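Researcher: Structure prediction, please.
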Amino acid sequence: MTDIKDASDAISGEDRGVPAPDAALPGGLSVSGLPGFMADLPPLIQAQAAKALKMKGEGVQLYPNGFRPEHTAKGVRDEFGEVSREELEESNPARKLAGRIMARRAHGKTVFFTLQDPEGRIQLYLRRDQLPEETWDLASKLDIGDIAGVSGTVFKTRTGELSLHVSELELVTKALWPLPEKFHEMDVEMRYRRRYVDLVMNPASRKVFETRSKTVDYLRRFMNSKGFLEVETPMMHPIPGGANALPFVTRHNALKMDLYLRVAPELYLKRLLVGGLGRVYEINRNFRNEGISVKHNPEFTMLEFYQSYADYRALMDLTEEMLSGLAEEVLGTTELEYQGEKASFAAPFRRISWRDALVEIGGAPAEALGSREAASSYAKALDPAADAKPGASLSELQELIFDLAVEKKLVNPTFVTDYPTEMSPLARRSEGNPELTDRFELFVCGREIANAFSELNDPIDQYGRFAEQAAKREAGDKEGMYLDRDYVRALMYGMPPAAGEGVGVDRLVMLLTDSASIRDVILFPQMRPETP
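Model: Predicted structure follows.
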């Protein structure tokens, strides 16, 4: 085998092994023999299916379930990557792998395949005079996208390419829909709709979701190490609560009642504090019937946690430690670059009050913070298209100013604290100023990443704020909270002083992977129906 080069050196051009739509198919088969549901499929897919049916007619199992790989491409590379050609020829190590064929190059009596498994790629080498006739015949019929099982010996080509000299070949799964020739043939919408193809074609996409998995794993280990108990709370609520958001509605037929998909687990988690669980957390899916954007998907993931006998300042310290450690573990550094902007997760993070942020960062004049009319005028000056709710309060107008003038300027991690009480219906009032709450939001690279506050545990105050929210709903605010009487009753049993926080896992992964859209970090984002 000393004269074997690698695939690109052995032959020029790529043989994809797919019959042209107008080609005469072997055995007299035609697209007319295909199942009826394939009638409207593109001719190329029809030809691929007709070829598969012919193979089946010749006795080839298209979807067997007997092959069991014993090794991986990465494992072979890790084990033999630094071993010399001469040592490999002498030891002749045998390996057994399975994966998807990503490239095929034929030259006379030799064929090179590129095999991709979940951990990487490896080159396969097949030689006609060293294989049984039926094995060579099968190799000639395999297409790009097919999944194959192979056994053989590991060697290196003359150019040093680690390869497997195949002695046994099996078809594991026949692909009827050809892969794109290149990743760049897939537009963004196709990547989101057909994530299964995106993952096959795009190693960077696989890396994003590996990072997501590592992120969730780290968050879970961190919370466990701090003595928090992982719990599960309902995803269908009789009363939606825990956030100002429009819920999705479903129907339980046996109970003859409407239920709401969870907008937040907050009120159930705090019930557990009443029950005596001192530290609880949940990595949860939430559902909010809101618009879709690069920052919003109707279904998203949060880490939400609550700690008895703590305040929001303690959670700022905890959050700094958690995110600094996360960046170190996932990225190997606390420094990151997101969409061209550099940020540092090294503690401590900047801390600034809501009002100071409006003035010092947003440049809002003091008079714009003193009346509805002045705030509305200033918001319009910032953006003539700024859309405030009809009859918006001063706090709501200030929130609009913050969104327009402050948020995008918060690049390095920044805790914005001391929000108006009106904006924080579940947060504890500040003892120094009851018009403000003990609350913070964490912003990084212009994105809100976390929201936290010292919890309101006064049932009378909580009932009053729920009533205010309910009045807003009656007045037409669809995102106003409902009055949850059972939660008020739980507080009447007595909830210890506590602090709680929600961290947006999707947005966190966006930062760690430099992903421009939330859809890039959700495997199957919500999409409009596909046009047939």
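Model: The chain has two domains: 7-179, 201-235+269-362+406-521.
Researcher: Thanks, that helps.
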